[in-house]
Amino acid sequence: MHQRPNWIEVKDDGEWDFNWCDVGWLRENFDHAYMEEHVRINHFRNHYELTRKNLMVKNLKRFQKNLEKDMGRTEASKCDFFPSTYAMPSEYHLFVEEFNRNPGSTWIMKPVAKSQGKGIFLFRKLKDIIDWKKDRSRSEEQKDAAHLDSYVVQRYIENPYLINGRKFDLRVYVLVTSYVPLKVWLYRDGFARFSSSRFSLSTIDDKYMHLTNVSVQKTAPDYDPEKGCKWQMQQLRRYLTAKYGREVVETLFGDMDNIIIRSLQSVQKVIINDKHCFELYGYDILLDHNLKPWLIEVNASPSHAPSSQEDYEMKYGLLEDTLNVVDMEGRLTGQEKRVGGFDLMWNDGPVYTEDLNLQTFGSLSFTANTHLGCVNDREKNLRQLLKPFPLQKKI
Ligand code: ADP
């Protein structure tokens, strides 16, 4: 922000036009803040409808049920991208029924509002969680009902796609500038986060093997800060294309687009749409060995802490382009389909690439305007797109 001409940092009680706040600030202040037309803030008021693990699944299940009612089973099956999940302890009995139908399967227990792998454990026996449940209900008797559903139990994906024997998940950045109408931008860069130990189902207690969070992997005894545990999305896309060919990879990336759009649609009617708000989400997606992507969670405050110089540059570009799309300076026309590393993927409907020719259009095979893991020549694009900063305008 300091690098943008004419942006001035204000002190705590100063008047501001743009606020990059944390969700705690939002909770305490949003409802009391009067905001002028041009003011922007980096979260939607009830962002947690998508970013809290239990609410995300609740909204997805409801959305899927409505789709089935209105459009049939085939359409609803396009939402089959989240592992079976139950809120704990309120859906414990439903969970036990499913658990008993799938003897021997592995489950993962996760606190709904924590991050960085904190409080997560895997289990295969009901006995393992019965004591846990007793302890929790005892301690929660004193608390109010809002705290009850504070965990989810989720089917563990036992067949993750492995590279060099290691599990990884993907971090994808998605910028929403409006929910009504839904306007969504997908960033070209992202990364895969690898675990440091070779994957195996023979032990379920090793977090370095099963949890791919960088914050977990960084504490592994053999973690090498030089090598890190990341691949850029471009590297992954190239690797998969060399191995399986372009068509397979396009299907996979198309399936990821589908996850992004449907998950956002599932909360479209619930999120309080406010023209002052935008949100840069960090999607966590896991691939299984059939190259099917699964939605693990959506983060409202994805980490912007760099783990290497390359990571720093990527995140710097991401934040800079977020500000370019939000456009406090008024340099855009509003018709852009691309701004730096962001491609407009949804604008009240799917967005297609420019070079769509009539023949392919006729056969309904037009190409989505998404380029995740493709070349990110953002600076070149920005040079062509943006007029230089107006010199004297005060922000
Ligand atoms: P947190 O918010 O604490 O990061 P996540 O839901 O992202 O919690 O889970 C942390 C990690 O655990 C993920 O990055 C992934 O590696 C692993 N994980 C989470 N859920 C599953 C699942 N259902 N199947 C397989 N691995 C999972």
From TrEMBL:
<dbReference type="InterPro" id="IPR011761">
    <property type="entry name" value="ATP-grasp"/>
</dbReference>
<dbReference type="GO" id="GO:0005524">
    <property type="term" value="F:ATP binding"/>
</dbReference>
<feature type="domain" description="ATP-grasp">
    <location>
        <begin position="73"/>
        <end position="327"/>
    </location>
</feature>
<keyword id="KW-0067">ATP-binding</keyword>
<dbReference type="GO" id="GO:0016874">
    <property type="term" value="F:ligase activity"/>
</dbReference>
<dbReference type="Pfam" id="PF03133">
    <property type="entry name" value="TTL"/>
</dbReference>
<keyword id="KW-0436">Ligase</keyword>
<keyword id="KW-0547">Nucleotide-binding</keyword>
<protein>
    <recommendedName>
        <fullName>Tubulin--tyrosine ligase-like protein 9</fullName>
    </recommendedName>
</protein>
<dbReference type="InterPro" id="IPR004344">
    <property type="entry name" value="TTL/TTLL_fam"/>
</dbReference>
<comment type="similarity">
    <text>Belongs to the tubulin--tyrosine ligase family.</text>
</comment>
<dbReference type="GO" id="GO:0046872">
    <property type="term" value="F:metal ion binding"/>
</dbReference>
